[in-house]
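Input record, target 12 of the design panel.
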């Protein structure tokens, strides 16, 4: 059951494919759908394996959280372990443009969030707050094939 309200300690992960725009411009829609499906199925398996929760996917961006719906002290370790697996699993997919292994760029941040189900026609479980914003920036400013970890998350795992 997804709880509504405030969570003081969770870890958020944003991941994306750095050259996705080039892939979209060079491939047929069916190829893009196949690629994203293959990638997201692999990422979903890792998130499930590590008892984390997939929040959403938007285009090539994958968002997950540790510490919701089950609050746990090791929320950061859960997502760091999943992120390492994601780097390796993503490499098993071939980039249709370059012919090289696909890469993912990951950003992780820890802190408080507000969570709730938003919408009536197509309700979605959403997370809000600076922790989300920082995790997004960590991901978008990261290096392909690496995990860009905030100071807050680093302190949880060190």
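The sequence produced for target 12 reads:
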């Amino acid at each position: 059951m997804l709880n509504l309200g405030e969570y003081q300690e969770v870890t958020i992960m944003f991941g994306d494919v750095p050259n996705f725009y080039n892939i979209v411009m060079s491939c047929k829609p069916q190829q893009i759908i196949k690629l994203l499906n293959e990638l997201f199925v692999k990422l979903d398996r890792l998130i499930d394996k590590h008892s984390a929760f997939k929040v959403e996917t938007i285009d090539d961006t994958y968002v997950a959280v540790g510490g919701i719906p089950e609050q746990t002290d090791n929320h950061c370790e859960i997502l760091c372990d999943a992120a390492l697996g994601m780097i390796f699993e993503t490499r098993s997919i071939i980039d249709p443009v370059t012919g090289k292994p696909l890469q993912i760029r990951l950003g992780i941040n820890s802190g408080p969030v507000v969570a709730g189900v938003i919408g009536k026609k197509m309700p979605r479980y959403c997370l809000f707050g600076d922790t989300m914003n920082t995790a997004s920036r960590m991901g978008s400013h990261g290096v392909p094939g690496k995990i860009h970890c905030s100071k807050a998350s680093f302190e949880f795992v060190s």
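The chain has five helices and six strands.
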